[in-house]
Design brief:
The chain is an all-beta fold. Helix content is 0%, strand content 54%.
Amino acid sequence: TTINLTAEPLPVTLQWTNPTSSTVTRSQFPLNLQFSVDDQKSIQTIAISAIDSAGQSSLIGTVNTPSLPTISISWSPAPRAGIYTISTVVTLTSGDTQTDQRIITVQ
């Protein structure tokens, strides 16, 4: 007898490690955005964008099939001073997507 089991993929946990503060200055740019994930093998791509207070989005970068659990990407050039939502869209190898957001104030 053969029994085939399928399971829904678990969400990937994303933990921001840099910047450690939610406020940065323009002089800190290019800014190293860094986060860790708990299951990088299940990730196909991660797209990171900055969304300003007017809702304008700009792609910071994309990471394809991360090989390490710690992921870094450089945000440059420095944006105008303001409040930005840093959005990550994670596409899993299953095709499912999940998002994470972090607010960063640029002074």
